[in-house]
Amino acid sequence: MSANVYRFKGNFKSFLFILALMLVLGFLYYTQILVKELQQKSRDFLNFKVKIFERNINTDETQDLSFFFREVIQTADYPIIYTDANGNPAFWRNIQIDSTVKRPIQPDTLKMLKKLVDRFDRINTPIPISYQGDVLGYYHYGESYIIQRLKWLPYIEIIVVGLFILIGYSGFSSIKKSEERFIWVGMAKETAHQLGTPLS
C-alpha cells in the first residue's frame, strides 16, 4: 500500500508539472496573439487618421500642420515623434523629453530624439505625411503603454506558475518527510516492544 501511495504522489507531481507547463505555454501563446492583434489594430487606426489628415490638407489646399498636431499627435496615448522631410524632429509626445523644449533644439536633446526615432522605426514603419505628392514629414511611433504592459504579462505568469509548482512541491515533500518520520517512530516502537523495552 505504501508503494502505491508513493507512486500516486510521484504521478501527481508529474501531473502538476505538466499542467503548469501547459498553462504557461498556453498563456504565452494567447498573450502573443493578443499583443500582435492590438499592434495591428493600432497601426490600422493610425494609418486611418493619417490618411484622413492627408485628404483634408490636400482638399483644402493648405498645409495646416497645427491640425495634425492637435488631432493626431496631442490625442496619442503612445510615444511618437514627428520629423520633417529631412528627418529633423519637430513634434513629439509621451517620451522622456519635454515637448515644450525651446527651439532650436539642443544637440544632446536632438541626439536623444534621433535615437528614439531609430528605435521606433525598428518597431513600426514610419508613416509619411504627403501634400500634393510631396512628403512633408514622417510620423514615427512606438508601442502603446497597454501593449508594453501586456508584453510583461507572460513573465508574470511564469513567476506565478513557478511559485505554484514550488509551493506544491514543498507541500508534498513536507508530507513525505512527516510520513517517513511516522514510519520510523512506529518501527522503533515495534522494535522496542519486541525487545521487551517499551517506549513511552
Number of strands: 4
- Helical residue percent? 55-70%
Question: How many angstroms separate the termini?
Answer: 28 Å
Count of discrete alpha- or pi-helical segments spanning 4 or more residues: 4
Q: Biggest sheet, in brief? A: 4 strands, antiparallel
Strand content: 5-15%
Strand order of the largest sheet: 2-1-4-3
Structural class: alpha+beta
Number of domains: 2
Using only C-alpha atoms, the radius of gyration works out to 32 Å
- Globally, the shape reads elongated
Q: Characterize the quaternary organization of these chains.
A: single chain
One letter per element, helices H and strands E, the order comes to HHEEHEEH
Spans with pLDDT under 50 lasting ≥5 residues?
none
Mean pLDDT over all positions = 76
Written account of the structure:
- The chain has helices at residues 2-60, 65-73, 107-123, 145-195, and strands at 80-84, 89-93, 127-131, 134-141.
- Strands 2-1-4-3 form a four-stranded antiparallel beta sheet.
- It has 200 residues and is of the alpha+beta class.
- The mean pLDDT is 76.
- It folds into two domains: 2-25 and 150-195; 42-149, no CATH class.
- Helix 1 (2-60) runs antiparallel to helix 4 (145-195).
